[in-house]
Amino acid sequence: MRRMATPTLIATRGAADYQALIRPVIDALDRIVVGKSRQIALSVACMLARGHLLIEDVPGVGKTTLAHALARALGLSYHRVQFTSAQACAARSMPMPARGESPATNSPDSRV
């Protein structure tokens, strides 16, 4: 079985090796989530940059499948936070860590 690319593995390699390491991951995800090549490439780029990924779309288009497959392909853990429109409006009542804020950066201007 071929070893999949992980953020740690890629960080130890040079830039020239990125394509060879990333291509199998993207190809595997393309076989699982059909018709979302751009979203897959952006998701992989986000993970390689050690970022956080918010996937938004209409129901039934493979958001959960993409997130779960991406985590498995990169050897990462998978956690899901789901909101309805009503919950998103009430998000101000959630604890700061669940909203992605810290006490030092809880002003609206400091959030991305």
Textual characterization of the structure:
With 112 residues, the protein is mainly α. 47% of the residues lie in helices and 0% in strands. The protein is built from six helices and no strands. Helix 2 crosses helix 3. It is globular and about 45 Å long.
Strands, helices and their partners?
Elements: H1 7-11, H2 18-32, H3 37-48, H4 63-74, H5 85-89, H6 96-99
Helix pairs in contact: 2-3, 2-4
Primary descriptors:
112 residues, mainly alpha, 0% strand, globular
Any low-confidence stretches, pLDDT <50, length ≥5?
Answer: none
Q: Hey, roughly how much beta strand do the residues contain?
A: under 5%
- Helical residues, percent: 40-55%
Overall 3D geometry?
globular
How many strands, which pairing sense, and closed or not: the largest β-sheet?
none
* Distance from first to last alpha carbon: 39 Å
Gyration radius from CA atoms, angstroms = 16 Å
Number of helices: 6
Counted up, domains total 1
Spell out the helices and strands N to C: HHHHHH
- Mean pLDDT rating: 75
Class inferred from helices and paired strands: mainly alpha
What's the β-strand tally?
0
Summarize the structure.
The protein has about 110 residues and is mainly alpha-helical. Helix content is about 45%, strand content about 0%.
